[in-house]
């Protein structure tokens, strides 16, 4: 039985088209944005934001009091839901819906398998047909006032940065050191779906070059056409800035295998090993 109060808004992990939202731990990640350490040094969720499970569908319950204490945090939650086409219901409406219709997990999985097969068939059609299905998007360099729009995507890459304020402060510090952000915005969405953080640097090894610090996306795996957009824009910037080449850092973690393949596919080569030492 769903336990919630009349003051809570529920973000359901199901799109308005009836498709289950991925990744599977999205609710915990979203709640983690506002989590903090308690007196026992344990990480705990915010008192007005919590993950819940409704009929085997992951959801996030947001108390309306959050809007009173932090409009920025509340709006971020609502923008995340709208940008990803997730259902937003008040608790009462969700309880009434449960009384009339029980969502079958088996049916949902079966529907996902059907959709996956349909997607595979669509992707095997001609390139013209494929391109016509790519969402209309805009790529632009982010202004200082747009920093928060990059948080959702970069949080996927840096989950340890859980607070929007902390994120904005870290970006501001890096901007003083030459850090810049590119973002791809899909039509009707407030948050960038794919973000690239880069800077122009000079050293003895590579001379003046463009360095990619961060490249992350809401889409998992990252969409190839969006990577192409980003890299084309970086090449144009590098040419304008009289850079000799583009370098990129990418973790050796197995989770990053897809990014390694994308870099190689787009003409990058592995030129060196990067060593790291932790100072305690």
From TrEMBL:
First and last residue of the signal peptide: none
Cross-referenced Gene3D superfamilies: 3.40.630.30, Uncharacterised protein PF12112 family, DUF3579 (3.30.70.2340)
Record protein name field: PhnO-related protein
Protein source organism: Snodgrassella alvi
């Amino acid at each position: 039985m769903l336990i919630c109060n009349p003051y809570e808004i529920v973000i359901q992990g199901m799109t308005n088209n009836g498709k289950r939202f991925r990744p599977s731990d999205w609710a915990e990640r979203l709640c983690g944005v506002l989590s903090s350490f308690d007196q026992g040094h344990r990480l705990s969720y915010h008192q007005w934001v919590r993950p819940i499970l409704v009929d085997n569908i992951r959801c996030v319950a947001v108390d309306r009091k959050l809007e009173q204490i932090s409009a920025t945090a509340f709006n971020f939650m609502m923008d995340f839901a709208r940008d990803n086409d997730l259902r937003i219901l008040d608790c009462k409406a969700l309880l009434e819906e449960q009384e009339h219709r029980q969502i079958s997990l088996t049916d949902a999985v079966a529907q996902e398998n059907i959709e996956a097969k349909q997607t595979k068939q669509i992707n095997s059609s001609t390139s013209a047909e494929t391109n016509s299905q790519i969402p209309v998007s805009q790529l632009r360099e982010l202004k200082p006032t747009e920093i928060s729009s990059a948080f959702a995507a970069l949080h996927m890459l840096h989950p340890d940065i859980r607070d929007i304020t902390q994120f904005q402060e870290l970006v501001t510090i890096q901007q003083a050191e030459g850090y810049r952000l590119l973002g791809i915005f899909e039509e009707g969405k407030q948050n960038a779906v794919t973000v690239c953080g880069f800077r122009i640097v000079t050293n003895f090894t590579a001379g003046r070059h463009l360095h990619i610090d961060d490249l992350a996306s809401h889409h998992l795996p990252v969409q190839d056409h969006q990577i192409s957009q980003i890299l084309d824009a970086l090449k144009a910037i590098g040419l304008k800035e009289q850079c000799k080449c583009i370098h990129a850092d990418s973790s050796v973690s197995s989770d990053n295998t897809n990014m390694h393949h994308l870099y190689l596919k787009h003409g990058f080569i592995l030129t060196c090993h990067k060593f790291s030492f932790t100072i305690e």
